[in-house]
Amino acid sequence: MARRTFSRAELESFRDAVVPDLLPNAPGQVLRLLFVGINPGLWTAATQTHFAHPGNRFYPALLLGGVIAERVDPADGMTDADRTMMRERGIGISNVVPRATAKASELSAEELRAGGVRLTELVARERPRVVAIAGITAYRTAFGRPRAVPGRQPEDLAGAELWVVPNPSGLNAHETVASLAAAYREVAVAAGVI
């Protein structure tokens, strides 16, 4: 089956769209690990699936790290089976800023700080064991921590263990699928997912 493609105009029509959080929603499902992106990209908004751009390495890294057991190819949209698998494993996905842009650099510092407040409220309500924010620069701005370094943070977030992990975007050339897999596995172990 051919992968869906979008024209630039089609993608631009999704600017400022919101992608709903992926959270466990069935009785008995608990949120152990909440991955947090910076904000949805236009491809993510078009497919309504987090980390959906074909160049994004999030799902390949989860698979390589043993965080998920089955391949997820979200470029055409995540399947119901994919969503169920994530929820049953106790994995959720959100964003610091919910609105879609072509680049994270389009977000203002004010939006990131407001997103930090929104995320804190979400974590207080959903009570994950671990929160993993994918992107050190966005974390520093959103939470007023200009000297923060990747890894386990010294403070919790609304009672959840807080980590900053590498951003899986293909634009983050310093990381490989293998290095992302190692970071994501570490937070999954901390959360009790694996």
TrEMBL record:
Residue spans crossing the bilayer: none
Key words, A-Z: DNA damage, DNA repair, Hydrolase
Native source organism of the sequence: Nocardioides albidus
Highest classification ranks of the organism: Bacteria, Bacillati, Actinomycetota, Actinomycetes, Propionibacteriales
Gene Ontology molecular function, alphabetical: pyrimidine-specific mismatch base pair DNA N-glycosylase activity; uracil DNA N-glycosylase activity
Start and end residues of each Uracil-DNA glycosylase-like domain: 24-185
This protein's record includes keyword DNA damage: yes
Pfam families: UDG (PF03167)
Top-level lineage group: Bacteria
Protein name, entry field: Mismatch-specific DNA-glycosylase
